[in-house]
Write a structure and sequence with these properties.
It contains 16 helices and ten strands. The chain has 410 residues and is an alpha/beta fold. The protein has two domains: 282 residues, Aldolase class I (TIM Barrel), CATH 3.20.20; 91 residues, no CATH class. The strands form two sheets. It has an eight-stranded parallel beta barrel with strand order 1-2-3-4-5-6-7-8, surrounded by seven helices. A two-stranded parallel ribbon has the order 9-10. α2 packs antiparallel against α11, α4 packs parallel to α6 and α6 runs parallel beside α7. It starts with a helix and ends with a helix. The model has no long low-confidence stretch (mean pLDDT 95).
Amino acid sequence: MQAHNKDRLIYDWNTHNSENFVPRVIEFDDETLRDGLQGPSVVDPVIEDKIEMLHLMNALGIHTAALGLPGAGPRAVEHVTRLAREIVDSKLNIQANCACRTIETDIIPIIEISQKVGLPIEACAFIGSSPIRQYAENWDLDFLLKNTEQAVRFAVEGGLPVMFVTEDTVRSNPEDLRKLYTTAIHCGAKRICICDTCGHATPDGVYKLVSFIAEVVAETGEDIGIDWHGHRDRGFALPNTFSAIRAGATRVHGCALGIGERVGNTAMDLILANCKLYGWLEQDLTALKAYCRKASEALGVPIPHNYPIIGEDAFRTGTGVHAAAIIKAEKKNDSWLVDNVYSGVPANWFGGEQVIEVGPMSGVSNVIYWLKKRNLKPKDEWVDAIFQEAKASNRLLTNDEIYAIIGVNP
């Protein structure tokens, strides 16, 4: 089917009377192996699984991977070193960064690993900036500014690229943020990161905050990247990320399956998928399912059946009306039509396909389709037996149950 026919068949209200916004540049920082591991229920994977995850990130075109926080101890140092070496030895395109507090003892291991492996590693130096955090910690702004200056200068002098991170940015005073970011940039930071550490922000708040920080950065006259790091305590993580992009963020953070502290971070898989759907990405994302499944297996995080795009039910239906439309589309020999007639997400973009099952909401066409899909002739007695059993059921029938109904050994 020609492109103009596709446009005729779907009117896109997402773009109705709106500007054709395309970000100047958008990069992705995968925090699965750092912030993701702070999730209370996750397992810290063995190094072999982390290496496999790193390769999948690279295959998806993710720009940067957080390798860990080496200041946490010997195991963290060992794993970060091994991952950094893998990037070098396998000539991966993905870049590396590591988290650190704004203290020299956290920064020194990053310098040592970078020099040992021969890989630039971005130091992501973080400090709490909100009034509530300052009060709880008995900090004041002078203390924060002094720590910022010392840490950024130390990392830069150690040969590290630096991203300066304010924790709880979304609840911080504007002038405090102005002074902190300006100080970090003057001391050599090449990126700054805006954090919704507690998952407090709304999309409107994010847009206003990121727009303000973009103005602060512009006032320095330096070419500085702006990162957005979000959490999903209020369920706003994904829309917040896209609001940040529209306001000027140039790199956004996420974790596989949205894992992370408390209820998690923004889901990297859904960021990538939606950027693709917006038309902002050209890279192949068919490895997205493998990336999520590996994360699920390695970190001990189950994927809900109804999880968008990569969940078992994402492109699966047992409803008669839906199935009938997909079946009619298949008869037109039009794969685009099959993927879009009852789905807002093309399954084949992400390594999936439309699946028709049989259950209590099914029509006869579901049964016939199921049989034909398995090269079985849809005999009337088989169709009737399966259909009657499905209508008496309170769920979809399994493949084994259907084979048993018709007495066929698959």
